[in-house]
Design a protein that fits this description.
The chain is mainly β. The protein folds into 2 domains: 4-148, 7 Propeller (Methylamine Dehydrogenase, Chain H); 176-248, Thrombin, subunit H (Beta Barrel), CATH 2.40.10. It has helices at residues 134-138, 213-218; strands spanning 13-15, 19-23, 29-33, 50-55, 59-64, 69-73, 82-83, 92-97, 101-106, 111-115, 142-147, 152-156, 161-164, 180-185, 189-194, 199-203, 225-228, 233-237, 239-243. The strands form 6 sheets. Strands 4-5-6-7 form a 4-stranded antiparallel sheet, with no helix packed on it. A 3-stranded antiparallel sheet has the order 1-2-3, with no helix packed on it. The longest helix has 6 residues, at 213-218. The two termini are 23 Å apart.
Amino acid sequence: MAFFLNRQQNNESASNLFAFAFIRKDGSVGAIGHPFYGGSLSPSEIQSTPERIVANNLAFAALNRDGSVRAWGSRDAGGDFSYMPSPSNPKVTKIFSTTNAFAAIRADGSVIAWGRDLSGGQLDKTREKNPEDIQKKIGTNVKIIAASDNAFTVLRRDGSMISWPTDSFGGNARKVSGSFVALASNRYAFAGITESGGVKVWGSRDFGGELSSAAEKSLSGGVKRIVATGSAFAALKGNLITHKTPQP
């Protein structure tokens, strides 16, 4: 089985588990692969000029220069979504993805999401697995979004964090406190750098979502950057410190 970290993408092209999508030199979008998962696209489906394509496991989303969004591929994974800016709907500036959902930051710092509920594709309180109205809690002034396999975490400009939808994939940032300046994620966990340079983690302990007492002491301050593999984190603070809770 392949997971979302196996996807390949840059601004001009992206791939999911079954298809490729790309921006041609003339600005049009092309796709090849399984038609149900985004490998088939008619020219009329992307009418604006795209500047970036983002993939999840089963669908694609194109962010256009006018701030609109057009997605295609599996409907369950968010492939039936379109968004057009208006006076009441700010332009989309960035798009992020889990395995089967997308989340986007708009120009006012607010967030929208679409795709599979349990992958973070719903923000409203009517969803059984996501009882809180996350969108109201997020508000505006979001700085960045990080994604695990099936959870999103937003870092707001005031240093606070909010995550959704499920604890098992790291959707439990409420369990950590502090003011944060940076975020990183792997498949099942998240790590954040606090204003004081310390590190806090959450999510699956087998993927670095818990710190040992020794690691907690080593990462209590002076951390400049965190990077992630699929199952571990590394912190840069003069010397490189790696962290992953050992498998039993």
